[in-house]
Each structure stands twice: as C-alpha cells, then as structure tokens.
C-alpha cells in the first residue's frame, strides 16, 4: 500500500505542540478527502474515470497575529486560490474569513466548530471549461485575538497541462482557456500581482481571438518567470505561514 510522503517546512515552535505523527496522519486524511471530493466533482460531470492521482497537494498552517491595532484591517488580501480545490479548517473561535458572492458582496463565514470549508480555485474553472467557479475570498481582522487556520490545497498537475478534458468541450461549450502549465500560471499570478483570478485572461481563448493573437500570448505571458513564494503578496505582516507541508502518494 502506498503511503503519503510529507515534506516538512515548519516553524520551530510548532514542533513543540504538534508531533510529526500527528502531521502525517492529518496529511493522509486530508489527502484522501481532497481526492474524494475532486473525483466526485469529476463524476458529477460525467468523468467517472478521470484521475487526480499525482496532482501535488500541500497544507499550510496560517497564524494571524491580530491585535487591537489591527482590527478592521486585512489579514489576507482578496484572492482566489490558484489550484483545483482547497479545504479550509478554520479557527473555531476567531472569525475573519469572507467570501464574495455572485453580486460582488463579501459574506462573512462564521466559525462553525467541527466543520471544514471547501472552495474551488482557478484550476477548477479552467479544467471544467467554466462549469466550476473559483471563489474570491479574504481574511479581515475582526477581533484582537490570534487566529489559526489550516488550508489544504489540491494544486494543478505537475507534468501535464491544465486543460478541460475533451468530454467537456463541444460546439456549444467551446474551449474557454488555452492549456497551460500550472507552475507557469502560478508564477504569472505572482509576477503580475494578479491574485484574484484575473491572470486567467492571459489564457482566455476569447481574448486571444479578439486580439488576433495566437497561443503566443500565453507563452509570452507565462514563460521565463522565476518562482517566488505567493505568500509574499497575499499575506500582510499580520499573517505568517507557521508551517507548510507538501504531500503526495509515493
Ligand atoms: O485563513 C483563512 O481562513 C483563509 C486562508 C486562505 O485563504 C489561503 O490560505 O489561501
Ligand atoms: Fe485562499
């Protein structure tokens, strides 16, 4: 049976309170859940045999150093997640997460102990040819208390391009996005400071046709960009990445 290999990158203080075994168990359980949900989404779109095996996952522990001075300011600025799907384990006591609804209004997500929150990212929108929606969200400091959250991400494929499977493309659903490599897309979001899904325009088939450009637009937009940490842009000094773990089936 394969195991989940966990690559650690942790703040030293965490090891005092969380053991390696606990982290490994969490990673295994959340990996299974992430894959189950992704497969069910694919099944729901008639793609029962689509496999997300090998798509990288990671989870991150966020620590928000909220204080009386930071009330009403931004903990994490508006963004979409770049990957396929995210499972959020919110702080059970301290709220602050807000998601944007269809009308563009931010709605607060109140803490609900014992629950997990699932949201979809840019990769899901491209992969589903626009059927699944990426969700804009942010974190605002509501009260002067330290806030912790765990965000687990199913990212995009490493070797293959992000693209809608042929079954989701036909004459009434033309391909909305020119296929691209996930890492190129993440780098583009960072370098252009377009963290709320706008970077998808660089791969939009419609925009490319309008500008009578070809695939070159995505290549020009997405190549030769160096990789940096996307926490640099999204997080304020209030939010630190206390730990990050990458995991995959090995
Ligand atoms: O801390 C939260 O509730 C949200 C974190 C988040 O949106 C992210 O890490 O992408
Ligand atoms: Fe997020």
From TrEMBL:
PROSITE patterns reported in the protein's UniProt record = FE2OG_OXY
| Any one Pfam family match given in the protein's UniProt record, by short name | 2OG-FeII_Oxy
One GO MF annotation is:
metal ion binding
Q: Which residues form the Fe2OG dioxygenase domain?
A: 54-157
Q: Which UniProt keywords apply?
A: Iron, Metal-binding, Oxidoreductase
The domain of life is: Eukaryota
Matching entries from SUPFAM superfamilies are given as:
Clavaminate synthase-like
Q: Which family does it belong to?
A: Belongs to the iron/ascorbate-dependent oxidoreductase family.
This one is known as Fe2OG dioxygenase domain-containing protein
